Amino acid sequence: MDAATRAEEFRRRLDAAAEATEAALDALLAPTPLPGEITRPARLLEAMRYSTLGGGKRLRPFLVIESARLFGVEGASALRTACALEMIHCYSLVHDDLPAMDDDDLRRGRPTAHKAFDEATAILAGDGLLTYAFDVVADPATHADANLRADLVLALARAAGLGGMVGGQALDLAAETAATPLDQAATLEMQAMKTGALLRFAVDAGAILGAAASEQAMALRRYGKALGAAFQIADDILDAEGDTAALGKRAGKDAERGKATLVSLLGLEAAKARCDALVDEATTALGDTGLGPRTEILAEAAHFVAARRN
């Protein structure tokens, strides 16, 4: 597959994953209660749907779907896992935007959840999405094998929680008021938790669903780690160079809040070079899976992450 064809196929699959994820999330966030539920409060459900539907590139679901596809796994198992991951990602955005955290008014080009509803409803919407994500993964509808579902639940909890995304957010907030700015090693650790952990889970999930050999799973994890780091640097670069209209959220807020980023530590050009090097690391790791041309779309995803403009 030549470069132009590969890029076109990547966009097609990214769009297809986004469309499938949107439809599945819409169905999951329907008003009809599931067995064991009593009712779904209308305003809370509206806030959950507002925060989850109709926006985003759905990169994380795409990575779950494409990683599972490497091992011949397609259909409900991959899609439901992808939806669960996207629910956790969206919950994290709702909570990150709150006045107590990043205090943002704009997300994906429209008012953030606490502005569109109110703070209490936004907090509960995030809580609901987080909890529902584990409901979806634990449900036998996701996979018939209970042990595999337990592996997914454990991996997702580790990625999303204390030693992953939530812990990374705590470190990020603490760094804003610390007497001594984070050094490069501490910044990389914080970013690997806050942003990288969920992206790593996306490819770990594909390996779990596909019963990948240990060497293949480790290679995919290295890919996910490099991809997550490249994603965060690209995000920092966009915040420094982009504008609010293009980004769909407030630009320049990292410098404004004194956030620890590789742009602030290394400078813009060095950060761009580091991002390119991470893309190379990611594609090299894919080569170590031994899966050959099947990994081309995931390699293209790494290039997309580095080159994105919003």
Verbal overview:
The chain is an all-alpha fold. It has one domain (3-307): Orthogonal Bundle (Farnesyl Diphosphate Synthase). The protein has helices at 3-28, 42-52, 59-69, 76-96, 113-116, 119-138, 146-160, 165-177, 184-209, 214-241, 244-247, 253-257, 262-266, 268-287, 296-307, and strands at residues 106-107, 110-111. A two-stranded antiparallel ribbon has the order 1-2. Strand 1 (106-107) and strand 2 (110-111) form a beta hairpin. Helix 9 (184-209) crosses helix 10 (214-241). The protein is globular and about 55 Å long.
What is the compact description of this entry?
It is built from 15 helices and 2 strands. With 310 residues, the chain is mainly alpha-helical.
List the helices and strands and how they pair.
Blueprint lengths: L2 H26 L13 H11 L6 H11 L6 H21 L9 E2 L2 E2 L1 H4 L2 H20 L7 H15 L4 H13 L6 H26 L4 H28 L2 H4 L5 H5 L4 H5 L1 H20 L8 H12 L3
Antiparallel strand pairs: 1-2
Helix pairs in contact: 1-3, 1-4, 1-15, 2-6, 3-4, 3-9, 4-6, 4-9, 7-9, 8-9, 9-10, 10-14, 10-15, 14-15
